[in-house]
Amino acid sequence: MVLLETSHLTKRFGGLVALRDVDLVVQERAIHSVIGPNGAGKTTLFNCITGFLVPDAGDIRFSGTSITGLRPDLVARLGIARTYQNIRLFRHLSVLDNVLIGLHPHINYSLLDAILRTPRYRRAERAAEREARELLAFVGLAGKEFFTAANLPYGDQRRLEIARALALRPKLLLLDEPTAGMNPHETEEMIRLIRRLRDERGITILLIEHDMKVVMNISDVVTVLDFGEKIAEGTPEEVRRDPRVIEAYLGRGAASGLGPSTLPLPGEA
Amino acid sequence: MTIAAPRRFTGGRRIDISQLIVWAIGGILLAIVLLGSILTLRAGHYTAAQWRDFVVFGIAQGAIYALIALGYTMVYGVLRMINFAHGEVFMSGAMTTFFLADYLNRSGFLKAHPWISLVAMLLFSGLVSMTVAVLVERIAYRPLRGAPRLVPLITAVGASFFLQYTFRGLFGSGVRAYPAIPVLQGKLWVFQKTQVAVFIGVLITLALLVLFLQRTRAGLAIRAVAEDREAAALMGVDVDRAIVTTFAVGGFMAGIAGVLYALVFVQVQFFMGFLPGIKAFTAAVLGGIGNLPGAAVGGLVLGVIESIGPSLFFDGYGIRAAHQLKDVIAFTILVLILIFRPTGLLGERLGGEERV
Amino acid sequence: MIVRAARRAIFIGLVAGIAAWHLSLVGLIPAFAQRRLVGDTLTFSYALLIALLALAAFATGRRYPGAAQRIPWGILSALVSSLMLFLLALLVTHLNLRQILLNATPELARVLTFGGGASGAGLVRLLLIGLLAGLFAGGLSALPRPWGRVIVSAALMTLLLGLLRDVLGPLLPQVVTSFLYGTAGLSLAGAVVTFLLAAVLFTLRWSLRANAVTARATAAVPATVRQPVIQALLLLILASVPLWAGLFLSNVADFVGFYILMGLGLNLVLGFAGLLDLGYVAFFAVGAYTMAVLTSPEVGQRFTLDFWVALPIAVVTTVLAGLLVGLPVLRMRGDYLAIATLGFGEIVRLLVLSDWLKPYLGGAQGVTRIARPSIASWRIDSPQEFYLLVLISCLFAWFLSVRLRDSRLGRSWFAIREDEHVAQAMGINRVTVKLSAFAIGASFGGLSGALFASLVGSVVPASFSLLVSINVVALLVLGGMGSLPGVVVGALALVGLPELLREFQEYRLLVYGIVLIAMMLFRPAGLLPERIHRRELEEAVEEAREIAPAEIATGRG
């Protein structure tokens, strides 16, 4: 079943075309990667989906309804959560509060309930805290609830960002380079976590990633963007053999700063 | 460390109720102003000569705003922050130079060599304001570069009041009257001679500023930092020095503006920096903050609107003492421009990445 | 190494000296020359000067590890500052600067040299004091951790007690007063006893707190029992103020209360939601003028409402005003928001002042004959009676602040403050969240304004200048943005103290300026930081300071 679908998605910044006629289909419970050289339009795609950018043309459909141009907070409430390439936590708040803020749309009580601390407020707050702790445990941050977010080590910050995104109870999770800046061991763990998200929680993953090993390792489908256009799509195996992809990377490989180890060369494991 | 936010996304259109209400209020205000103007013009209380005088006065006033506005805009260009204390930089030059002017006057030098005196006053005022601006940067802003945005904003407000009340403490809270400069008395065709002097002074200063920015290494460094601080630093530009230079140049112009202001309005006191400061800021935003020609144009536009506005907009309604509403007009323009066109009339010219 | 250390010590001494020049020439130091703190000799001016010398020594000394280096370099710094003081005294005595600098008087020279005058005797006296101050500060910084702090706190406490002689004297039992205080300030014996008592108290508190860290972790139960008791006691003391405080003190307490209310209101906007509103006075004004127009027979429709009817209307009006200001500024970034709100505040003041609206709002003369509240036959008239009303309002605002802070709305405010973009991505509607901060924050200001108008009985536009907004921002910054106890401490220090010290009035705004800058530089989270916010904000500034000179090139930030 299709969860997310963009058709003819186009976004311009002045003269620059960041996305041109992008058709993307994300199947439910898939791990779907978007790759492409720097400036290919990947993050713009994310921003369009999450409502921070309004596309100039085209349509975005989520679970069958159009969400094009919907306000970001409404998109989030429909079940699309995201993380950021450069981690963006609520740095001065506690780990627990970060997740509780993510639960915001699911906490139901009125202002009056909060002021009077009615049973309803207490119940909702208790339930929220329980869920938040459970999410923290899921990503491996149990016991760190009252640390300040900014004081967590780098890898934990990434996990917290994911826990916070999970608090939205998303159907679709957009991960923007979740393994950026991680060592091989941390990357391994992150890959495992992403798999668990899909397998245990049934969350569909759309992911931007530069590390080709990660992409090839976990993706069901890979979409390749170049200069705002989709140039290839398919299983990791298919994409890797696609001559246009090789050209896109190799042609400007040196300039875009991608090391040889991350190039999807044929025959490389 | 705060994380740099990406560009503000304004690509598409998305309208919600809150925006509609804001637009509606804007529309009502516009209608009031238009209706008032029509009523005023039909009533014909003012002669063409009076309107002309309004405009002339507005231009002279606006030219001074323009000079101060350049300081706001230049600092914004390199640091992406509003130097809230800039109005006080302007005040400090004007206040201090009073004593020089007074001395020159009493010693008779002012009468004997008015032009030399004037130049000396301008330079002195410029230097004082420059020193103050550099000190403010050094003490209140530099140690906090990179801190959350709110932090330097608060120190800027603090610096502003610190300077105001320092000058009040040093020189007293009374109003001081600048001596009249004999050669600048009287009229030249329809203009007051002081107005002409102000206008020429502003033009010369602007020309010097353009030369400085275009032709000197320091000017080049400032432009490079405004364009892209990181790239400039990588290219070997001394960023700290460029920033200090910016404050110095902006301060110098504010000092010159201070003396010119004193020529027109004669009186100076410790609180004099607040209104011109806010208005110059309005001018800077009006022209697109970060945009140098914009600041100049914005200053003139604001000066003229403020000068003719009270009569033109309100006289038709028969409002009592409409001239009291002059500052209301200035502040309303400020608020409206921030709401409806924060990028200014000429567009914000920002190098590099805009930070939210 | 030695050259560098000497240069640093001299530099710091010079900086402290310049600060002393500044404070002297703006008149702050001479203004307090008559304010005796201890005995007949130690005036507030002297205390300030000695504090500056000691600070120079301390700032120099703390860079070094041991007493062997701290003390000599500290003394050098203090001596340099002393020389600067002497230099100013010389200048003031021998040059006639009074034409330009108001405070460059012979009197200043006497104060600067601790009574010695700009002569050899004065120089010797100054150097001696510099030496002692340096020795004291250097020695202090060399003491183990808590002792330095305890001694400084106790000394400050003593000075504060001396400073408040005129206020506290009449309140304390006759025996205590006559023992503690002399003809002016503390008596010598009183000072010694106060100092020792304060030292014991601070030591106790410190050791209690040191224990509490471990105690709290093991047994959380006592805290839940203890807290209500402490709260009840505090409430009792607060409620009893009108019984023991006189007219003057009650009046001051009322004004502090108005500022606490405003501080709590702005705290929602600035402290919680991170929006710097420089036009907060507008809400105070709207509340005050609504009360005035509705209850005074002088303006408007010539009808008058009862105080209790007008009060809720005033609050609702300010909420609407909050929405009106909030709506257009929603999409603005921080610095533009500050200026736009400042613009709103000024527009309100100018409109109120204008002749155009004079028939409705009274113009420059304002409105008088504003109603006072009465309950049944009891007319709440005196500041003492009014105090209870103010207290109840403050408690109510505090209560609301706590409840909102701990709710989902409070968390949304924090999220917006931390990162607006991410907050939206978390499903938070920034329009409603920001508007609610503005509206609720405004209502506290409106309540404050309405009470103010009623107590004073009249309103004039001059009471609603930008300075009020700055005052509220400053007290928040001093206490700690986002911290509720901080609001109270800030209001006491920045509103209460100046009201008590007449000489201080003129330098209030100068001190606000210094407070705003100094707090941001040295203690950005405030004196009583919001629990979790604290370390982070300090770290951020610390980090910024480290990055600033060299690494700005890498463009973090």
TrEMBL record, chain A:
CDD domains, per this entry? ABC_Mj1267_LivG_branched (cd03219)
Keyword Transport in annotation = yes
Q: Which Gene3D superfamilies does the protein's record reference?
A: P-loop containing nucleotide triphosphate hydrolases
Record key words, sorted: ATP-binding, Nucleotide-binding, Transport
Q: Which GO terms describe its cellular component?
A: plasma membrane
Q: Where are the transmembrane segments?
A: none
Q: Which InterPro entries match?
A: AAA+_ATPase, ABC_AA/LPS_Transport, ABC_transporter-like_ATP-bd, BCA_ABC_TP_C, P-loop_NTPase
UniProt signal peptide:
none
**One GO term of the biological process aspect:** D-alanine transmembrane transport
UniProt-recorded Gene Ontology molecular function terms: ATP binding; ATP hydrolysis activity; L-isoleucine transmembrane transporter activity; L-phenylalanine transmembrane transporter activity; L-valine transmembrane transporter activity
What's the protein here called? ABC transporter ATP-binding protein
Its source organism is Thermomicrobium roseum
TrEMBL record, chain B:
Question: How is it placed in the membrane, per its record?
Answer: Multi-pass membrane protein
Where is this gene product found?
Cell membrane
Which InterPro entries does the entry link to? Answer: ABC_transp_permease, BCAA_transport_permease
Instruction: Report one GO cellular component.
Output: plasma membrane
Domain of life where this protein originates: Bacteria
Q: Which UniProt keywords apply?
A: Amino-acid transport, Cell inner membrane, Cell membrane, Membrane, Transmembrane, Transmembrane helix, Transport
GO BP term, example: L-isoleucine import across plasma membrane
The membrane spanning regions, by residue number, are none
Q: What is a single molecular function from GO for this protein?
A: L-phenylalanine transmembrane transporter activity
Write out the similarity annotation.
Answer: Belongs to the binding-protein-dependent transport system permease family. LivHM subfamily.
Name the record gives this protein: Branched-chain amino acid ABC transporter permease
Automatic annotation (TrEMBL), chain C:
One example GO MF annotation = branched-chain amino acid transmembrane transporter activity
Q: Which Pfam families match?
A: BPD_transp_2
Give the bilayer topology.
Answer: Multi-pass membrane protein
Please name the InterPro entries in this protein's record: ABC_transp_permease, LivM-like
Spell out the GO cellular component terms annotated for this protein, sorted alphabetically and separated by semicolons.
plasma membrane
| Top-level lineage group | Bacteria
Q: Which UniProt keywords apply?
A: Cell membrane, Membrane, Transmembrane, Transmembrane helix
Q: Where in the cell is it found?
A: Cell membrane
Output this protein's name.
Answer: Leucine/isoleucine/valine transporter permease subunit
Q: Which organism is it from?
A: Thermomicrobium roseum
The organism that produces this protein has a lineage beginning with: Bacteria, Pseudomonadati, Thermomicrobiota, Thermomicrobia, Thermomicrobiales
